[in-house]
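C-alpha cells please, single chain.
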Amino acid sequence: MIIGITGNYRKEEFYPLLERVHTLISSQGYPVLISSDLVKNTEYHIPSNYEVVDFSEFIDKCTLVCAIGGDGTILSTVRRMEQKMIPVMGIHIGGLGFLSECTEENLESSLEHVFNKEYSISHRMMLEVKVKSENGKDEIFYALNDIVIDHGPTGRVLKAEVQVSGHYLNTYEGDGVIIATPTGSTAYSLSAGGPIIYPSVETILVTPICPHSLSARPIVLQRDEEITMRFPDPFDGIALTVDGQTRITVDNDSRIKISRSKYPAQLVSLPSNGYFKTLRTKMGWSGNVR
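Here you go.
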C-alpha cells in the first residue's frame, strides 16, 4: 500500500499535521508520496525525507490519499482526479467536516484503522458538466457537491430554461439555479431551501436560488437524467461555478449539459463514525428541542 498526502498548503496548520501524518505512516513501513502542490509555498523548506511528485504521478501510484484541510480540500482533490478515482480520507484542520471523518484529535486511531484495513469506501456520485460555447468548443468539469449557475456580478434577474432529458421542466427567474448531488445537498442547496438527501441515494437535485415565484420549488430527479440549460434572453456575465471553487463566465449562446459522472468519488468511511452522527453534529441537532 502506497499512501499519498495532499492538502491545503496555504494554511499554517497544514504543515505540523503533514509532518505528523508522514511520521505515523512511515513508522509502519508504508511508502509515502506527497503532492507537488507543496512546492508552491516557496517559503517552506521541504524535508529531505519527503518524496514529492506531480499530482498526475501521485494519483497513478497511490493506493489511498490523505487530504489535510477542510471539506474544500477534499472537493478539490477529488475533482482533480477526474477519471482516476482512488480512496480519499479527509483529515480536517479544526473540527469535524461533513466529508472529513478524521480530525487532529483522532488521527492516530483513524490511521490505525487504515493500516489494519478496518474501513469501508463510500462511493459518492459526481456530476459531469459540459459547456459548449458558440465556437463549438467543449469544456468539461466534474463536481462532487454542486454546479451553480447565477447572474454573476450584475443584480439583474436571470432567466434559465431547464430541460430534463429532452423534456421542458421550467424557466426559472431569479438569482440562478443549483444542480446538486446528494453529497452537495447539505451545502449551498440546503441554504436555498433544498432537502437533505442521504449520500448513497443517487439523485440529481435542482434547486432555484431566490426565485421570483413562490411556486418554484426544488425537485429531485433520478440519477440518469441529463439536464440541459439555456438562457432565452441576452445576458452578460452569467457565471458557472463548480464546487464553489472553479468559476467560469458563460453567455446566453452557451449550452450547458449536466449528467451523472461515470466515475464516483471514493471517500474513506471509518467504523467509529457515521453519516447521521456527522449530520447531527454539523446541523446542531440536540434532540427534542421545543
